[in-house]
């Protein structure tokens, strides 16, 4: 029976957490859960997990994590990514007008439905979101000492090979 592999990926809004999670899942045959997706779905019900140190401690007590990946992306890169980010609300598909635009501007590639831009992806809201992330993330990152691996850069495609290499080395390589 294969061992469960539990990891968390931390990073500010627009850092590439979803892209990295999808690549890990595809490359290693794993499933992933996006707390951001759960948070957006849970906002009307006032839920969303984990977003604070207390919530991270509860998660860590329930499920012993094997690895925590922290993505460190410069502010200017985040600002550029988020201001160009458009989303298909029904599916969560993300487009970026600079490097991953839809085939037809403003329309989802699969359904043809309109894309939206979240108000909190606009530059005015970004500073507030980054300040909030830094306040909340520091104690969560401190909790992850010993299993924390940080990756810095401006492009997910340049960060990914290092994460992929890490996950292909023991103790992550063998899941028996």
TrEMBL record:
Adenylate kinase active site lid domain boundaries: 85-120
Signal peptide stretch: none
Coiled coil: none
Molecular-function GO terms, alphabetical: AMP kinase activity; ATP binding
Keyword Nucleotide-binding: yes
Superkingdom of source: Eukaryota
Methyltransferase listed as a keyword: no
Keywords: Kinase, Nucleotide-binding, Transferase
Similarity field: Belongs to the adenylate kinase family.
HAMAP family: Adenylate_kinase_Adk
Protein name: Adenylate kinase 3
Source organism per UniProt: Oryzias melastigma (Marine medaka)
